[in-house]
Design goal:
Elements (H helix, E strand, L loop, with lengths): L12 H33 L7 E4 L6 E3 L15 E6 L4
Antiparallel strand pairs: 1-3, 2-3
């Protein structure tokens, strides 16, 4: 006489479905968030957001070069534009 000892429990189908749905939701949220972060970082790199102005080749007198800023497509002349911010003298 052999008794069936069933002490171990398996994962129910409901737990597996809920875990799969949670994983899908996390992937969708991560995709949306990374897309938004990319747009936000592009906005931060823009010259106008840093209160600068784009000039071809070099910055005029009484202005400083912002090295990590990018000129927008509308401001570019030949791809060598520099983002400059005016410096106030006291």
């Amino acid at each position: 006489m052999v008794k069936n000892n069933k002490k171990a429990q398996g994962l129910s189908i409901n737990v597996i479905i809920i875990a799969a749905l949670a994983l899908i939701v996390l992937v969708v949220l991560a995709t949306i968030f990374t897309g938004r972060v990319r747009i936000f970082s592009q906005t931060l790199e823009d010259c106008a957001s840093k209160q600068g102005q784009c000039y071809p080749n070099k910055c005029p007198d009484n202005s400083a070069l912002i090295t990590n800023a990018k000129c927008s497509e509308a401001d570019r002349n030949d791809g060598k534009d520099k983002c400059c911010v005016s410096v106030f003298n006291k």
